[in-house]
Amino acid sequence: MHPIAEALRDLEEEKVKLLVDEELENGTPVMEVVGHLNEGMVAVGELFSAGDYFISQLIFSAEIIKGIMGRVQPMIQETGTASGGTAGRVIIGTVKGDIHDIGKNIVVSLLRGSGFEVIDMGVDVPAQDFVKAVQESGAKVVGLSALLNSTYPEMKNVVGAHAEAGLRDQVQIVIGGTPINEQVREFSGADYYAEDAVAGVDICKKAYE
Amino acid sequence: MTEEIKKLFQERLGRYQAAISLEPTDRIPIAPGSNYFAEVFSGNTHQETLYDPQKWLEAEMAFAREFPQTDVLRDNRLWGPSLDAIGLQTYKLPGKDLPPDDQFQFVEQEYMKADEYDLLIEDPVDFMFTRWLPRILGEYNGQAEPRSYMAFLKAGLAQAQFVQIMRNRAMRLEEECGMPQPMTGAFVAPFDALADAMRGLTGVIMDTFRQPDKVVAACDRLVEEMANFALSTADPLKRYPIFVPTHKACFLSPEQFDTFYWPSFKRVLEILTSAGYKIRAYLEGDWGPHWHHLLELPKGTIICDIDNQGDIFQAKRDIGHHQCLAGGIPDSQFILGTPEDVRKRVKELCDTLGQGGGFLIGGGCNIPHTTRPENYQAMVDAVLEFGRYDETVKPLPKDTAGPVNVKAFDFPKKLTPWEVKKKEIGGSVPGDENLIQEPWDRLEAMAYAWLWQWTM
Prior knowledge:
The structure holds two protein chains of two kinds.
Chain A: H1 3-9, H2 13-25, H3 30-49, H4 55-79, E1 89-94, H5 102-113, E2 117-120, H6 127-137, E3 141-145, H7 152-164, E4 172-176, H8 182-188, E5 192-194, H9 197-207
Parallel strand pairs in A: 1-2, 1-3, 3-4, 4-5
Helix pairs in contact in A: 1-2, 1-3, 3-4, 4-5, 5-9, 6-7
Chain B: H1 3-20, H2 36-40, H3 46-51, H4 53-66, H5 80-84, E1 91-92, E2 105-106, H6 117-122, H7 124-136, H8 146-177, H9 190-196, H10 200-210, H11 212-233, E3 242-246, H12 254-274, E4 279-283, E5 302-306, H13 312-319, E6 325-329, H14 331-336, H15 339-352, E7 359-363, H16 373-386, H17 418-424, H18 433-452
Parallel strand pairs in B: 3-4, 4-5, 5-6, 6-7
Antiparallel strand pairs in B: 1-2
């Protein structure tokens, strides 16, 4: 494992920054550095899935990456290496009637950290906006997030709206959040429910395999 | 109050208190903490419950009549006008910021900056007035303007009205329905005070890695404040537990919990239990890695509401011999399940969690707004069928009345106690000082507590 990936896995923020700076100064291509960060992120995800890391550590690792990506993004655009380099495109949002976004934001950070292009629709998103985003972006995965258990009917409504628009076969709909379980997935007609943030990322990866 | 209602009240409260203390009862109490279903059961919109105290109470009474086997009842905790008076930014309210039939929602942001810890630690009240309150109270922008002064005046008047509304509710539920409260008064863990309405989750998580000592010091500083607020809002007769929702523990690793969350939280719990109170703690999310700590508090003092993500059967094995557990029926089952599903679940709970007592049946920290009435009824019926212990055991309410002893700090806290004022005016008064001091200090204490409610 590359030292950058290792430092990120161990949540050593200053070390990650230092190593990234060194690599870039030595002329390492920026996408190679991003690759090391992705490798570290995967390691963090594995530790989370194994129960060694908790959500706080996921959040912190995502914030470390966010800080670095903010700095290297202009370089990526300069070199033009971003096009075609994404792991896939994912639409995500908190459904209508709910304005909570802690869970959604964790998933967004992890997805971006894993190389996905994420279209973050924000909170309180109407069903039609999800449909429109699918039509415009061609994304294969739509993630619906919620904290409130009053959103079950809305989850079903979003799934129904995709069916009505003739898009149901083109997208996989994943639901996640505190009140979500298999019973809710079945009720809503979604394809998957994500038990946690890392499970959600894994589902997206599968969809683009 | 008729004799029949009085007897019913005593029976319910006795059953509830006995289960909390892990003592024998006639059956498993039906005692959810937050019964959101009750506030909309009569057909109220969410806005009506929050803005119209009469409709709120009518909803509760209709619920109490429809489901008389429910042992305690509490639902909504906000009165919209008291938040509007001061322009609270941390909540979006139905009918005002949201459609009338949406539930109120918390708006988490970075209301305290990462470099403001020292200000909070050195002088919390000054920090509040100069930094924090201007950001969360929209009608108070931190400026000495007529509108700000009016906002505080309105908010104080509204607070007095709200206290009256709450007192009236509890009294009428007791006297007309024989219905006790599951809890009275509230606080949050020091870490949650910091994490919810000050730094926000992401902010506080960053801080635990980047400036851990500051987080610990701030939590230590908030111990007395949270205990003071809890005791200021608690039932003076100590019949009912004090409520604490624990919001952010579930995001922490065990090491972080032990460092940042538990030490200060434990001290608040110790202050409250040694003052003679029980605590009803919503263990939100999965507290599995942390709940063994509750063995450190005296037996039968903390009611642990196990959330949907927690394994309540494991909780029974880990801590059920020492603290009372509550919950057991997943939200999704109340909302999407069938009465038969609920019946099966209740039987399973009675056969396991119910063994040996110390169990309150209900949902995972709440009964959802959108519960199917037939599912709530199925829970009640199944408890009557499977949840009986010994019909001859009829525990009476405990004799809890007595002084509230607080040794840890000078309770209740005040910004300008009478002693300070007295010095300012020369050290003595010509008349009866008691007639002046008692109301002066009482109003000081009420105002001080009012300040801290915005951390909830």
